[in-house]
Amino acid sequence: MTESELKAGEIIARMDRIPTWALNYIFLGIIGIGELFTFFDIFNINVSFVQTAVTLFHVTPSQAAPLLGPVVLGNLIGYVIGSLSLSPLSDKIGRRDMLVITMLITAIGSAFNAVAFNYLSFLAARVITGIGIGADLAIVNTYIGEVAPTKYRARYVSLVFIFSTIGAFLGIWVGLLLTTPPAPFPNGLPIALGASGIFASAGWRIMYAIGALLAFIGIILRINLPESPRWLISKGRLSDAENIVKKMEEKVTSKGLKLPPLPNVLPQITKSVSVPYSEILTNKLYLKRLAVLLPMWFLAYTTVYSIASGLTSLLTAEGYGVSEAGIISAMGVIGFILVGPIASIFGDHFSRKIWLGIGALLTVFGGMIVALTPNMFIDIIGAIILFFGFNVWIPIAYTWTMESFPTRARTSGFALNDGLGHLGGGLGVVGVTILATILPVLDLFVVIASFLVIAAIIALALGFMTTGKRLDEISP
């Protein structure tokens, strides 16, 4: 081990011994604001697309579902493009700078959506937004995982995920408020504005404008983030990394906490890697992990996006009224909101792969309730279970995927799995929205849930342990 490698290893060892979050908590909030917008954008199409289809594309509400598929697929194609092309830049030029760039792209896409003038322009705007979101999620989860304490990586990824759930909640409920007609609860939202004034034709435009505003706020806040010390070390910037770690240590000791003894010093690579993907595609260990994680994400995202982006349109195609379908989706997001707190408390207590099984079982259970019961109140309970189930595994799997690749190619590894995995979501939504016109509700939900069930089986059978281990032990 050279002198610089030894010094780098000591800095990382000092960082790994820190027992708690050691940056300002405001930085969690800054990252969280960006994720709030990201998930606002993912979920705002769920309820609002019916009004978009009626007012911009001039079709009936029951004809919205087939038009949704290509739009979601376009968004996810953009996601894949952004994830695979922009995320590796984070491994080259840094996490913080790319977090600003990706949020800017997302803001531009959302603003374009607000002024879309036909189907093609609406689709193009969704593609641009997807490009920003795809890279952003990969970099955010990499950043949080690299600065979080070893024993609680899933906790802090899940805490940021709480903002994501708030964004999803706002995306659906603001859509319900601005784009649906009022109706007595639970058949609708009594104070909904979607049948009067500007909201009757442009409620959905206002939604995307709100999203763009949130994104621009996120850009301003992210400029203040510190760089990841692990990334700095991977580029040989030992002095900059040590200064940040020293401040982290001081932050902990100022709280009256005592720093544990240094763990073993592990070898560190302190040189640039020109092509981050080569670190994964030419390494047997990381190729093996890719072979497990990629099909898992690909199949699981088919379930996730079929419900997240299309539940309202699917229910409408099955005969529910627009307001009723919107209420079921909007109330279901309560289950999504519970994900962050539950995952942050319990996420590090079990193996990462166990959470796929838990999510799949709850998704099947919730979906069956929605499919088999015509009672609105029971359907709402089923939707809450459904939303909790198809989301509870996600922040844990984000952590698992981030842990599975080395610092010098960590964002690229995340992007390969999450980015290509989204192709499954896009293709699945296209297929599911077509099936919604020919299958009964029960059969439709069986098809949707089956993808997550298969993904869980892959994870449980082939998954590997990372919980509680140091990042450089997992992925040297």
Automatic annotation (TrEMBL):
GO cellular component terms attached to this protein's record: membrane
MF (Gene Ontology): transmembrane transporter activity
Family matches, as Pfam families: Sugar_tr
Transmembrane parts of this sequence: 21-43, 63-86, 98-117, 123-144, 156-178, 198-221, 290-315, 327-347, 354-374, 380-400, 420-439, 445-465
Subcellular location: Membrane
The protein, known as: MFS transporter
Sections of the chain in a coiled coil: none
Its membrane topology: Multi-pass membrane protein
Keyword presence, Transferase: no
UniProt superkingdom: Archaea
Positions of the Major facilitator superfamily (MFS) profile domain: 27-467
Record has Nucleotide-binding as a keyword: no
Coarse class of the protein's main subcellular location: membrane
InterPro entries: MFS_dom, MFS_sugar_transport-like, MFS_trans_sf, Sugar_transporter_CS
Keywords for this protein: Membrane, Transmembrane, Transmembrane helix, Transport
